[in-house]
Amino acid sequence: MKTINWGILGAARVNQRLLPAIENNHNSRILMLASRRNGAAEECVQQYAKNPEGIKTTTNFDEVINHPDINAIYIPLANEEHTEVALKSIAQKKHVLIEKPMALTKQEVKSITQAAKENNVIVMEGFMYVFHPQFDFVLDFINSGKLGKIQYAHSMFSFPIQPARYYRINRSIQDGGGALWDIGPYAIHTLRQVIRGHIKQVNATAKMNSHQADMSASGILEFTDKRRATFDVSFECTRRSEFEIFGEKGRLKCHTVWQHEDDEAIISYELDESAPVVEKIQKGNHFELEINHFVECIFNNKESNKLSMNDAIQQAALMEATYKSIQSNQWVSV
Ligand SMILES: NC(=O)c1ccc[n+]([C@@H]2O[C@H](COP(=O)([O-])OP(=O)(O)OC[C@H]3O[C@@H](n4cnc5c(N)ncnc54)[C@H](OP(=O)(O)O)[C@@H]3O)[C@@H](O)[C@H]2O)c1
Fold this sequence. Notes:
By secondary structure, this protein is an alpha/beta fold. The protein has helices spanning 15-23, 40-48, 61-65, 82-91, 106-119, 133-144, 179-182, 184-195, 286-300, 309-328, and strands at residues 4-9, 28-34, 56-58, 72-75, 95-99, 123-126, 150-158, 199-208, 214-223, 228-234, 240-247, 250-254, 265-271, 277-281, 332-333.
């Protein structure tokens, strides 16, 4: 297979980042984009694609899923819609890149994993931030031991939601709406990446709107060895896109994590008895790096070593426990 022919399901806003990222991959070509809303696919392609001429549009998802020339499908649908279309696509032997969260339950991610195995296709959850050079810097820094053992980490992601996006908060958290499912996956996944270890339980709380969608959510993750991590996400707070790690011997902060390609990448750290240091890391387009990585995985017929399906299952288990904790107001085991 020399070229990966892509189909895209959904005229989502995130296509603004992903269409050019796919187009810029030398081994990729976008064949088709589908949206259930009349005219939305055409508008999306015209607005976001660098070369809209070659991309066919349709209102019928099945036309993409069953297209014999399409080998890879990107799913940027609403969070609660991912599983059904992913399973349909995998059954047609398509490789699938699924936006985060891959699904709303651990069981759904397990069934996607099983289907991927049976059909011998690559599936990956779209956590683009792990491909940014600044995240390599963070992991190298942790691995160097300069911070000592990591004892605590905190992540924050927020921005005031724009009226054009209100359909994301006009359905309940139970149905996949709200901040936890939307931006929570980033904040929670990052904590798992930087603290490592086994998470025993989670306690989370949220502020709901009249649709029972969470406008803000915060939580504590407790590891089996009693280390902790906390997160805060919100659709009604000023822009924050950061995490901070605290070790036995120092602290490190990543100032803009889930960012756009042109954003500065700044890391600051302070080791005991040393002056604070601010590092400007090279800018990186993590969407392009994510696509390049996914295409490599397809060519090598090997699942991602950065975003494995096992990681997706563990992530879904933690997200599901966090959701249950919000609903029950109690600690929930992961
Ligand atoms: N990796 C990232 O940086 C990143 C950033 C943002 C979001 N995401 C993830 O990507 C996925 C899509 O998020 P998004 O914010 O880009 O999606 P979005 O714009 O909210 O669109 C999601 C889906 O809803 C439908 N939709 C779009 N606009 C709509 C409208 N005005 N009214 C009704 N339905 C509409 C579209 O399906 P149809 O076209 O079929 O109607 C679309 O595929 C989610 O899983 C999200 O968590 C990732």
